[in-house]
Design goal:
five-stranded parallel beta sheet; single chain; 5 helices; alpha/beta
Length: about 190
Amino acid sequence: MGLEKRCRRRIIMDEAENILDAGDIDRILTRMAHQILDARRGAQRLALAGIQTRGVFIAQRLQEKIFGIEGRRIPAGTMDIALYRDDWTHMRHNPKVQSTDLPFAVDGREIILVDDVLFTGRTIRAAMDEIMDFGRPDRIDLAVLIDRGHRELPIQGNYVGRYVRTRRSETVNVQLQEHDGEDRVFIC
């Protein structure tokens, strides 16, 4: 049984703990957009790279918020890191490989990797490996909606929406309107 189905069963049994709703997510992304711009004094060389799947939608939302603040549309792309993961051969299921589309030159850019949840750090390591295959950015930062701890690699977010204490056995689920029909974050 897949993780999503197990989690749905637990939700039905009221074992899920809601931690963010749509309003919370919107406020957090607005704050993160301001932090990104404040750290750079503008968005001239900035580009966003959303990690499939929900990181893509968060990157698009950050792109819109930065446009609303700065009046400048920064480039945003999508990354699929499935084949860059160090554990892809150990996965029980066949990874669904999606497209990577970075519609900007990586060389000399300040790239912000965007993902929904930071956990072990392995996804981010894979994303950095993939970015380097496209060129040499001046800087790579990380923006995540949720940092739940339990790192296996020395990776940390530069822009974090919310730090959430979890047990290793718990799952943090992010649902976004574009993919799931609603915005919320919950633990099960």
